[in-house]
Structures are given as C-alpha cells and as structure tokens.
Amino acid sequence: MPDATTTLRRAPVQRRSAERLTRILDACAALLDEVGYDDLSTRAVAQRAGVPIGSVYRFFGNKRAMADALAQRNLERYAERVRTRLDALGDTGWRGALDAVLDEYLAMKRTAPGFSLVDFGNQIPVGSRHDEPNHRVADRLTDLLAASLDRRPDDTLRRTFLVAVETADALVHLAFRVDPQGDPGIIEEMRELLRAYLGRVLD
Known about the structure:
The structure is a single chain. By secondary structure, the protein is mainly alpha-helical. The chain has helices at 15-35, 42-49, 53-59, 63-89, 93-111, 115-118, 133-145, 155-178, 184-202.
C-alpha cells in the first residue's frame, strides 16, 4: 500500500527534509479548512509552513499532488489508529472491529485538519480509476482485519469490504451534510445496515 512519499517528486532522505515535508502537509491541511481547495495555492502553503516556495516544488509539481499526498498520509494515520484500537480491544469479534473502524473514521472526520475536504482522496479525485480512494481503503482494511477475523483476504472478502466502505462513505457524508458533527441518527442507521450486511459473510 502506498504512503505519502509515492506522489513526491523526490522522497525525503534526511530527517530535516522529512520534517520540512511534514510541515508542508500540515500547512496544506490547515489551509484547506480555511480557504478550501479551489483557493489553495502552493505559495500560501509555503508561507504557512515557513519554507521557501522551492521546497514545495521540490516535493510536489502542483497542489493536486500535494492533496493526494495528504490523502495518502490520512490513510496511513487512519490505518495506524485502527490497528492501535484493535490491539487494545483484543478479541471482540467482527462487530467490535467494525465499531473501531467506524469510530476512528468519525473521529478523524471531526478533528483532523483538512480531512473534511480531502479525507482519503474521495473529495478531490486523485490517481487512476484503478487507484480510487475507496478501493485503497477497502484493501487496507481487508489486509488489516483478515487475520483478526481468521479469514483469508480473498476476492470475496475484498469485495465485501469494498461494498461496506462505499456504503459507509455515502452515509457518513450524508450524516455530515445534515449535521456538521455527524447526525447521530444517520450514523446509527449506518452501523445497523453494515452489521446486517457484513453478518451474511462474517457470521
């Protein structure tokens, strides 16, 4: 699974360069919340990050590539949050795993800078059709959860998680259109729908 470095013109090698890249992506995320994607500029990101404009172009050819890298970083951070949550929960079955997956996504939706505009790339289409964001999320979750569910990550499981991810994506966006913090009723309906769907395969 790719990380944020796969969209870079040049991957950071030294610690100082990696820290500069982090500042650039942090600045990009903050500015997305403030001005939106259309008004985002590489110059504004450079100013907010406190780096020369050339440093931004050293890593990214344009703001689209920068948003793509932020989306991939979001996915890496999300996967790590889910992994940490699952490790803390122990053996709770797939329903406990589902709650962890949903809860961590909702937490990032509410608190992570820039996430509401970019998330994992769905809001700003990135990459090729083969690399659509929900496919990346579903593949990552399949690989992450298969062992704990004692299932092989075969085509059936991958298709099941892809349908679940697409469904959750649509309903989460509906919940946040209704309520800026996510309408609780819609979120609970989503949980029930996903439990019923996944139960056909995972029970």
